[in-house]
Amino acid sequence: MSGAEETWPDESGAGREQDDALLGLEGLDRLEGALGGTAPRPGAPLPRFRPSPSLQRTRFAIESADGATITVDVDHASQQASMYRNNQHVRTAEMPARFAVGHDRVEVAATRYGMQRIHLVRADGTQRRLDPAPGTPEHWRDQLSRRHPRVGRTLAAGAVIVLAVNLAVLAPQLLEAVSHSAI
User: Fold this and answer.
1) Which of 19, 90, 135, 150 could bridge to 49 as Cys pair (CB 3.0-4.6 Å)?
2) pLDDT beyond 70 at 12
3) Roughly what angle, to the nearest 10 degrees, separates helices 137-147 and 149-181?
4) Closest Cα partner for 119 from 129, 133, 111?
5) Which residues pair with 91 in a beta bridge?
6) Looking at the record, which segments are called Disordered (predicted)?
7) Phi-psi region of 109 (alpha: psi -120 to 50; beta: other; left: phi over 0)
């Protein structure tokens, strides 16, 4: 994201329009607290992370100033984030979301394809990115890169190559579709 000062909505949702514009989400309805039947009930335990939905879900965690473990469960498909405090559900919100943690706050922004931002912002303005929770693909990649930096760099280069090849294959198909629709 840009280095410009960002503002996030307060708990009432004020300022949401500006945030939506920054993240390209303008015009989407915000239904904080009314998320159908998908949101866990307050106080519900944090479910075990299963690898099967790992392409659409992820988790990040951090220890708060008072020693509590804050875990954020992100569902990319539904664009919702749920905050757990010491493995107990506190709140679910649509993204971009901001969760109060005492005087601090956790800011979460993600797309269907990955995280844009997941930081703990302290009352004094300092920020720290949340760590990937154990059992998630992000945690595995982080551990692999720390233990074997060359392997991590090789995987990153391989991902860029796969992306470039996919774009090279897709470009002619898009050009053909556009040229046929213009006729």
Assistant:
1) 135
2) no
3) 130
4) 129
5) 83
6) 1-53
7) beta
Task: Label residue 52 by pLDDT band (50, 70, 90).
Answer: low
**Which pLDDT score, from 0 to 100, does residue 162 have?**
92
d(CA 119, CA 126): 10
Residues β-bridged to residue 131: 61
Instruction: Specify the residue for token string 């905050």.
Output: 83
Contact between 123 and 64 under an 8 Å Cβ cutoff? The reply is no
The dihedrals phi and psi of 37, each to the nearest 5 degrees, come to -100, 10
Residue 92 and residue 126: Cα distance in Å, rounded? Answer: 24
Q: Are the C-beta atoms of 138 and 58 separated by less than 8 Å?
A: yes
Rounded to whole angstroms, what are the CA distances from 167 to 40, 170, 174, 175? 39, 5, 10, 12
Q: Is the pLDDT of residue 86 over 70?
A: yes
